[in-house]
Amino acid sequence: MFDLVIRNATLPDGRQGQDIAVSADTIIAVEPGIDAEAGRVIDAGGLLVSPPFVDPHFHMDATLSLGLPRMNVSGTLLEGIALWGELRPTLTVDALVERAVRYCDLAVSKGLLAIRSHVDVSDPALVTVEAMLEVRRQVAPYLDLQLVAFPQDGYYRGPGIVEALERALDMGVEIVGGIPHFERTMGEGTASVEALCRIAADRGLRVDMHCDETDDPLSRHVETLAAQTIRFGLQGRVAGSHLTSMHSMDNYYVSKLLPLIAEAQMAAIPNPLINMMLQGRHDTYPKRRGLTRIPQMMEMGITVGLGQDCVMDPWYSMGTGDLLDVAHMAVHATQMGSMADKRALFDAVTVNSARIMGLEGYGLDVGCKADMVLLQARDPAEAIRLRPNRLAVIRRGRVVAETAPETSRLALDGRPQVVNPAEYAPRHGI
């Protein structure tokens, strides 16, 4: 007798007709034709069951604040930062918690059950930290939330930020962040990378830095980050987020840089929606995409996880909390259109990001935590194409969100009465 059995599922690796049996909060069996009773049975009908979506880069302290204190008229990164600087003195713990928890409701409905959020520590009052720690506590039963101590204004640019970052870590924030390209000089940026990696090494923590989020090909702090990762023995614990300057770098330099990143076992976290919106702002035409070199990184064996970054905040007026929107944009922006490419990008919003975050018990293997999503799609490529409804979202063996299948009724002579988008998947062995 199991607590839950999902029957006739297709798995991301292509296996079809699989049953998934769950007892308590753990996957007990994954195989065809499990002959057992269960407290609840879900017929997947041949549709895709995936591990939950994972967002390795987000700003939960700013989410859903669009229009406060005013709109970003230029749509640029710098105006967004200026707007956040205006909003920050007015923030309260209650308002921050309310917006963030409300966003988590949306995330869960999209099958997004793990998020890494950067928390601004530029204000020594640390209202944002206090609020996000409370959010982490509230959502723990249904969402894994990691917090990054992020000096939005620059580690060395403002009074008290160095001390505030240390206090944020003392309060329970578990990852060291940075933004070296936003320091006043390249030298200070380099110094900040070394200082922050030293802190992480001393405390035994992970590192996740906004790095080279610019069109300037001479912004090369990722090289320093990789070198300091090796110097401090942080291999496998460091991620560089954005890395957009790499889109503008010359190929010879990148041919040296990517092997260094691979040697450091660094992960890369591009954010396709935001990078496409904010980069190339000084270009007329030709106009750069501004997205880092995802295909080349994947070819080098570098772990790439795709982030949402923002949803309706001073930097980005769009966003749905759906990581498949992120993967969908990545397909277009990187021209990764083959079936293998789309499978790789599906991994970038699931298993790769889980690896970056160090999530334990993640996946659909026996013994993993019973966290999964039933999608109205036939396979990962179709999931990215359709960005389909999440028919069931399961957390620790319990269904925490359900959405009815998307169908349309037609009134056309001689044509079907019902159209189901999932039934348009290719049937000819692609």
Automatic annotation (TrEMBL):
* Entry's Gene Ontology BP terms: cytosine catabolic process
Q: Where is the Amidohydrolase domain?
A: 40-400
Keywords linked to the UniProt accession: Hydrolase, Metal-binding
Parts of the chain that traverse the membrane: none
Q: What is its EC number?
A: 3.5.4.1
Top EC class, one word: hydrolase
* GO MF terms held by the record: cytosine deaminase activity; isoguanine deaminase activity; metal ion binding
Metal-binding as UniProt keyword: yes
Asked if the keyword ATP-binding belongs to this entry, the reply reads no
Classification via InterPro entries:
Amidohydro_3, Metal-dep_hydrolase_composite, Metal_Hydrolase, Metallo-hydrolase_Enzymes
- Quote the protein name from its UniProt record: Cytosine deaminase
Q: List the source organism.
A: Pararhodobacter marinus
